[in-house]
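Q&A log
Question type: sequence-to-structure
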Amino acid sequence: MRPRLTWILHISMATALVSGCGAEPIQTPTSGSSSTSTTPPPPPVKYSTSGWKGCTEVRQQLTGDLPPPLPEDRQEGPKWSLRICPFRSDDTLVVLRLQYWETTDDITGVHSGAERAKKEFLDRGPTRDKDSGVSLGSDARWKSDDSNGCTLEILDENAVVSASSSNRKTPSAGDNEQCHGPVRELVKQFYAAVQPR
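Response status: OK
Response body:
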């Protein structure tokens, strides 16, 4: 009789499993269903590697006397890129820089390239003098620790655009209009030249 009892017990358990014991059946998605995410896609960035023209093309759009060009310098990091166009003579050094950040999406969330650029720009020193004569980007500031010239940096969405100039024959502390005027005009031209296509 015991084998018959075991057999009845197995049938009872199988019936309970098939009937679900009163629990709601689990719904499996069909191939045509799509999941809806409440997270919007990251916003597009203004500056990217695909939009970079290169120093040779940028130089063709600049007016005025620049020293002879040096080779372009490119630096890459995790979701950022830096392009440097240097020009040098025996006495003068002019450096044009464009650094931009991509939007990232990781386990901590979406971090826009613009947020990352703004953080980097502000971390360079909040006490730098603002320049209201440029009217480009969302902020423009003079680098405060230039001892041989001057550097103007512009925050523009996901990038920092900058121009610097120094001259060994006529060094200036960087906080005078003799240095600021030419660099201000140069950064305006550089800004126009690096706008994405």
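Response note: The radius of gyration is 30 Å.
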